[in-house]
Amino acid sequence: MISAENLTKQFIVRGVPLVAVNNLSFRVVSGEVYGLLGPNGAGKTTTLRMIMGLLEPDSGYVEIGGVRSTNKSNDIRKQLGLISTNDGVYPWLTVREMLMYFADLYAVEPNAASERLEDLSNLLDIRSFIDQRCSTLSTGQKQRVTLARGLMHDPPVMLLDEPTRGLDVVGSQAIFRFIDLLKQRGKVVLLSTHRLDEAERVCDRFGLLHRGNLQFEGSLEQLRLATGKQHLVDMFIAFMNAPQNQNVPTSPPNELSTEA
Amino acid sequence: MNEYLSNGRLWRLCQKELRESLRDRRTLFTLILMPILVYPLLSMALQRLVISSVSKGTTESEYVLGVLDEETADRVRELILEAQHVQAEGFVSPITVIRTTDPKSSEDAKNDSEPSESVDSVQDEIAKFQLVKADQESLASALRDGSVDLFVTKLTIESIKLERGSAFHHEIQAEFRQSDFRSEAAMSGFRRITQILNDYQAERIRGKIDRKLPVAMSFNARGVIQPADLSNSIAGVIPLVLILMTITGAVYPAIDLTAGERERGTMEALIASPAPRFALLLSKYVAVVTVAVLTALANLFATWMTLSFGGLGQALLGKSGFSIWTLFQILPLLVIFATFFSAILLALCSFARSFKEAQAYLIPVMLLSLGPGLVTLMPNVQFTTLLGIVPLLNILMLSRDIMLGQSSLVPAFAAVFSTIIYACATLVVASRLFGAEAATSGSQESWSELFGRPKKRQHLPDIGELAIYLAILFPVFFVASNLGGMFAIKGGWALFFNAVILFLLFMIFPLVYAWYRRLNISTTFRLTFGVGTGEPTFKRAGRCLGYIVGVILLSFGLWMVAFEAYLLFESWSLASQLTEADKEKLKADFLAVPFWVVLMTAAVSPAIAEEFFFRGFVLSAFRSKLSIFRSVLFSSLLFGLFHVIAGSVLSIEKFLPTIILGIAIGFIAIRTGSLWPGILLHALHNGLIFSMSRYTEQDLAKWFGDDTQHIPIAWLCGGGLAMAVGVAVVFLSSQRRRIHEDSI
Predict the structure, then answer these.
(1) What's the pTM?
(2) B500 touches A at CB < 8 Å
């Protein structure tokens, strides 16, 4: 389970303080896909980095499985898998070498890693090119390798940072299937995206982030009820046009939704 | 963290980086093709250089020949004229093949009488000389500075009876500058004159030529070695080229494995993994160093081939040329250089966000590294002791001197040791910078993490901090230990000066640093007494007494180890390279100092200062990451290496005993959790050694009962026993639980 409590992070940009994330709290449980949504610059990536322990929050904390991540502990990172927009591959390594390398980075024992590789190569259909160098792969194949990379250490929590950006319909479909797979396996999935239509399809609950503030949190039904609008896109436009710092009171952010 | 630093895993991480680099065509291009392309070109350029300097040396109008008196000048002039006559007559020497003769020039030569005027000769055949008369000393120095090309030191004539008449035997001795094209040409020009005359004489004796020529001569020329000449600067070019090529080899993998990760989009996944950044960077570093060393090997081999088979080696580097032995001496230097420069490259590239940015950073660095290269090319720059600590320049100069076969020990040691320390420190900086941009808001945070004042109190120093402190400490310590000699500080003042330096560098600065970095002073420097606070007074007093008795016993044994080690190294002629006279003088200076001053400055002060550093700061820094055994071993190695530097000489004999002392004190410090027993042991050990040095060899012989100066076996057994008992007493007196270690 991910639990973020009152996360705040401020950057100084050319001498001017900029609040990237302001008093953000949310929780995601196992088997749940949580969409952290917002336009560019809303604070999604900063939040993810604080969860990964790469950035230290100015105040507040993140707990993963009951352990705080701000102490940059390695145990926390082992619990996390990260798939992000710009994920690349090592052109001169074979798929097997690359995946085994990441297994080593997560201190997975070589035997366990081999088994895991076997499992994932069936699951993500990478067996046919597993001993090819990554430079020879097609875009779709590379994408599958990246997804396998995120799962090599079998993390209970997956962070997906804009995973469909720049992908075509087929690529995006692969991601959706992957998210379904994660859900079936009972993973905690945190999806950060600005593609609201996609989020609508795959997420169980949403947190709408705007200028570092969590504007709304809840399921699609709750949102529809609260806003009277059918689609996330319309709802978001409504939030953005609303006066600053005025949260739409539908569901308290800290409350864990049980309907999902 | 240790599961990532296990050898197997670290090796697998390295394998990935090596695969990535060595499969990359661009790396292979610089590795294999560059040497093949560059060296033939270099060889041609050098050949042109040699040809131009040879022709410059030989075609200039006349050589300057120095003579000691007017009589010699007359004789020399006569000989030259005779040779010209002989040639003018069409005599063809059976040895020297003469192509043309020019009778006109020999006519002119007859009119010459002034010493300073030239004696013209057959063009391109008999060398022209300008005679200069001066005394022995000024001619010798003129020969060295190049204003005289050949110096006739002796010319004697005696009459010898021959079957058909008589002849005068000339014995000529001369000096010339070795490896100087002009001087060597002057020498061989003069040798040819004597040869022509000898050949002519031989023909005459056989009756073939009917002309009276009463000469026969022997010509001996001695080469004078020139410290700064052409070969010096050319020997500087070769290391420079090798080093530049090594850098070229390392640049691409360094960029590709750091900034390249960012461009490929793999950096974020790397940084998000729990693997420590130092392990990530270390594996990259191993790959870069490997490629750099492979490039160095390829280039070194190509250079060797070029110089050996092109015949350039001997022309450039003297008779021995570029031997395999030189190659094996240069190779480790290139490896050390590669370890240093790879760290620099990685640090710079870690800072960069993209390939282009990395290249932009590297170009000025490559240009900057040409600076020291140019210094090496200047013929009169000597590789002095202090230059030994200047990064890059030290390795270049050392390689040059090795190629010329004139390297010396102290700067060589300083060069190697300092370069390794600099490499470690740079690697630490690189590991902090690596991925900083991807992880945090910028690299600024990692800088402040490294050099700023932390907000929270820290328990122990980090190994990284130690590496950076050492990189600053070593050059300062090295310069400081040479200062005493430079300002001719002697006797008690020298000892006092040393003690002040030790206190500053090993105690005060580390304490200030610990305060600045908010380190826990008590745990870092082990400032406890190694007794439990809750224990009754008598028990605590007992422990203290045990420590004191234990270290006194240990000091006896350790002193014997140091004494015998010194004798051993002396028998291998590895002890400090001082002459007997110097040693006597040092001893006299030393005896003139009151003994209490010696004890305070050379036993008590070093004990306190060095223990603060080596068993305090250094040991704690190693303990923050490593096992007890490794921490003690590494801190003792550093302790030993710092003791080898003793001003302008190296005390290699101190290395082993100091390490043994370091290991003993290291374990005591960890077992008792206290610095104080170690300080006492260190002071006693030094005190005993200095007390012994106040006695003469006769005194020692009387005590030891023989003249060998060795400690008798019975004494050694006693010392061994004392050591064993000492260790046991300290061990038993300390708490079972390691007080200090438990608190970490």
Answers:
(1) 0.72
(2) no
